[in-house]
Give the backbone structure.
Amino acid sequence: MDCWTRWVGEIPIVSKVGIDQHVGPGQSTRASARWGLGGGFDVVSMMFCMHYAFESENKCRNMLRNVSGALRKGGRFIGTIPASDVISSRVQGKDLPDGSPEKEALKISSTGLQEWGNSIYRVRFAEAPPKTAVFRPPWGWRYSFFLEEAVEEVPEYVVPWEAFRGIAEDYGLELIYKKPFHDIWKEEKDDRDLKVLSERMGVMGRDGRFALGEEEWEACGFYLGFAFKKI
């Protein structure tokens, strides 16, 4: 099922566990309380996929209606998406060395950087993005994405973070966590259980040394993790 365009309450197991259609703008939580409605799920997880819903406003809002409707009060919506802060920084050329041809070209251009990456990953906007890197309206900003051995030039969409957070609030979702992958690693790498996992994933060697190269580390920095609570 396309969860961006259809109501997941049509799925029998979802309906059986519990899903509430009275969520979103114009809906009253009193209606849910009055009729004993409400979602029955503790967690909704979207790993490396939610940004596809930002193709259009309708898809974005339908996605959030499905998420919020499925969650019980206090339930969690967790996920990973490309970081709009990183995209904005790249579009503006902030990570380019001073005096580089690309940065000098941006100074006289009316648009921002359209393509960047390395041998591990690559981003290319379908149309040159605004030089200010202000993505308005907050949907429909398409780019193609390549990730070695994982993604082959797939069309994706920018998720302007503050716009997303504001829209999520319309559906009773309160932000409780947001961190770039680089920060998550720096803060959690010494956790006993996660150290074992990082060795299994090849991120850290048995000798305790960091095993990723510079290009792999740069590609990891393209993402962030988030969590919302259903209120």
Notes: Residues 57-70 form the longest helix (14 residues).
